[in-house]
UniProtKB/TrEMBL annotation:
Biased amino acid composition, Polar residues: 1-11
Pfam family membership, one: ParcG
Gene encoding the protein: Pacrgl
Native organism: Oreotrochilus melanogaster
Region (Disordered): 1-46
Protein name stated in the entry: PACRL protein
Domain of life of the native organism: Eukaryota
InterPro entries: ARM-like (IPR011989), ARM-type_fold (IPR016024), Parkin_co-regulated_protein (IPR019399)
Database matches in SUPFAM superfamilies: ARM repeat
């Protein structure tokens, strides 16, 4: 009268009725499970990435460096605006290679990389004595900025343009030797109405910081430029 059949080997086999009964007691299948609802923040900021997430795969040198703690500043969320918090005073941070790494980060398209790279680059250039630390890095900085200015993403181009103006204000005429490598991408974007005025203002600032010698360089690449 037992529900279990015993075989000579001692293995117990349950009849079909018992197996079917146990199946019915299982929880609902994954297909019928309720899917997690997307968070409101996903809609507000769809490009946000958690650099420390288990499944995050850094897609660039900057992202990988940031994830490993190689960038000595972090994003602090504020109620009005975000800001950077430095692990040590920016004045004590070696510009080589951090300034170049931050410039690399200007090509990022995901938050927080976009904010950290742009704000970090800007704040490093604001410290006292930035010029003497930056000028030796120009041969490495210029190709990186050129890549940002050549990027198809409008926001990346805008960050690259802002960084170029900031750099020019710090190093002055020292940028003139490298200027021609950066102007081709500005000329290409001049046909875009939404950037025309911003590029024109940027060129004027490059002239102000670069002196008279910069005018001939700018005109050689952008003949329509008026001093």
């Amino acid at each position: 009268g037992s529900n279990v059949l015993r075989m000579s080997s001692g293995v117990q086999i349950k009849p079909k009725a018992a197996i079917q009964k146990s199946k019915t007691s299982l929880p609902c299948s994954p297909e019928s499970a309720i899917k997690p609802q997307p968070k409101p923040s996903d809609k507000l900021n769809p490009k946000t990435i958690d650099p420390f997430g288990v499944h995050s795969q850094p897609s660039s040198v900057f992202a990988a460096t940031y994830a490993k703690g190689g960038i000595p500043c972090r994003l602090v969320h504020g109620s009005v605006k975000h800001r950077l918090q430095w692990e040590c005073p920016p004045e004590t941070v070696p510009f080589d290679p951090l300034l170049v790494t931050l410039a690399e980060g200007l090509r990022e398209t995901k938050h927080p990389y976009t904010f950290v790279s742009k704000e970090g680059f800007k704040e490093l250039l604001m410290i006292e004595g930035a010029a003497e630390k930056t000028i030796p890095l120009l041969p490495r900085l210029v190709p990186v900025l050129k890549a940002a200015l050549a990027h198809s993403d409008d926001e990346v181009f805008g960050r690259g343009l802002d960084a170029l103006v900031q750099l020019s204000a710090v190093v002055g005429p020292s940028l003139n030797d490298h200027l021609k490598h950066l102007l081709t991408n500005l000329l290409r974007r001049l046909t875009d109405k939404k950037f025309r005025e911003k590029i024109t203002v940027a060129l004027q600032k490059l002239e102000q910081c670069g002196g008279k010698a910069s005018v001939a360089i700018i005109k050689s690449k952008i003949p329509t430029y008026c001093s």
